[in-house]
Amino acid sequence: MKLFIQTLGCAMNERDSAHMIAELQEKKQYTLTDNAKDADLILINTCSVREKPEKKLFSEIGQFAKEKKPGAKIGICGCTASHLGEEIIKKAPSVDFVLGARNVSKITEVLERPKAVEVDIDYDDSTYVFASSQDMGIKAHLNISIGCDKKCSYCIVPFTRGKEISIPTDLLVNEAKKLVANGVKELLLLGQNVNHYGVRFSTPHKKTNFTELLATLSEIDGLYRIRFTSPHPLHMDDGFLEEFARNPKIAKGIHIPLQSGSSQILKMMKRGYDKQWYLDRIAKLKSLLPNVGIGTDIIVGFPTESEQDFEDTMEVLSIVEFDTLYSFVYSPRPHTSAYNYDKSMLVPQEMAKERLSRLQNLHKQILQKKAQKEIGSIYEVLIENHRDDEGQTWSEGRSSQNKLIKILGRKCSIGSIIQVKVTHNDGGGLYGEFVRELSLEQALQANVYIKCINGSD
Ligand code: SF4
């Protein structure tokens, strides 16, 4: 039996797809195919954070229904499945089942029930032990919580993934150890509100928090780096920032969603912090780690956003000098409180797009300015990819700060840790020369050495 799976949206969806693949491989002996026409089961793992992919879903279902081989099943999973439920089968009768984002552990069960719809957002997937580990090479995702208790006024996630429940620490440690034993060097911890870990478990559990979880996971022998996404600025207390800076296994690149630089808009977004709080957290982080890499998300054109509100966002961009930026024009989503705002509060699309382009241009200028300072810097790169054929030899990987760096003329083995000196930047990425290969132990000690060379300590 062959399985074709299309995954849209965020890392959480990728992880959910990995769970479903593992279940289907182990319990139903499916093998993966990248050709939908060959598949016995076609899964679309959907995203509903923005309006466009949701609109495209029905035309995609129609296309798959036309192409699929006789008897093949189509299943719709993920956030749009939670959001639209049985409406999907009513609108597209070729769909065999609908499985919500909070119900992925039921994949082998719904497969056997014609026209099944499982979208219960109170379902507890948090203590479910999934089938054998994902095969992700040297990097793997690990879900540490499901759902979200926040009520950001633009976000549909609490409606599609339900209230927040943390996965017990011992399950996480066991899964992490299994992954490391299979060759994983870098873990990406996932949660909609990842640093809110430990607030609620569905079974009795000792009191714990995200900072303690990081410390526990970092004790696993053989693990090199831990990343996580997405933390909420509100839960970044000093204890967390100090552990982040101190612990050599925690990668020194962090994504801190800003959403807006205007305190008034942040209040309307129900984010729980203001511009000053955000800048204060960044200042504390940079005082501990001057060379930290910071990424963010920004929504432009939220209802009532004035030119002054937008200028506040531009100001935060200039102060923080983010290394990565995911920026979007506001997209109204059903079941969110902002969806009910009066039409007169909406920012005209043309104005929002023009602001988005100003924001992205400023970010480009910031990156160009920062790129000049990179020349001569030394980074520790975990090699993820290499090539040595047709006259091309190179290796590439990411630094602790999450910068993609390519080493030309050298094939380093995947999973090796290489010290690299940056030699140039072509606007699209950094290039460097091989300095030396490090063992895991050397690499964990070498953090200090690298900070000294870069003049940041
Ligand atoms: S923290 Fe806010 S933006 Fe993030 S998933 Fe929860 S409700 Fe959505």
From TrEMBL:
Signal peptide (from-to): none
UniProt binding sites for [4Fe-4S] cluster 1: C10, C47, C79
Enzyme Commission number(s) of this protein: 2.8.4.3
Catalytic reactions of this protein: N(6)-dimethylallyladenosine(37) in tRNA + (sulfur carrier)-SH + AH2 + 2 S-adenosyl-L-methionine = 2-methylsulfanyl-N(6)-dimethylallyladenosine(37) in tRNA + (sulfur carrier)-H + 5'-deoxyadenosine + L-methionine + A + S-adenosyl-L-homocysteine + 2 H(+)
TRAM domain span: 372-436
Keyword Transmembrane helix recorded: no
Entry-linked Pfam families: Radical_SAM, UPF0004
UniProt xrefs under CDD domains: Radical_SAM
EC class name: transferase
Cytoplasm found in the keyword field: yes
Domain Radical SAM core: 134-370
This protein's UniProt keywords: 4Fe-4S, Cytoplasm, Iron, Iron-sulfur, Metal-binding, S-adenosyl-L-methionine, Transferase, tRNA processing
NCBIfam families named among the record's database cross-references: miaB-methiolase, MiaB/RimO family radical SAM methylthiotransferase
Family: Belongs to the methylthiotransferase family. MiaB subfamily.
Name of the protein in its database record: tRNA-2-methylthio-N(6)-dimethylallyladenosine synthase
Source organism (scientific name): Helicobacter magdeburgensis
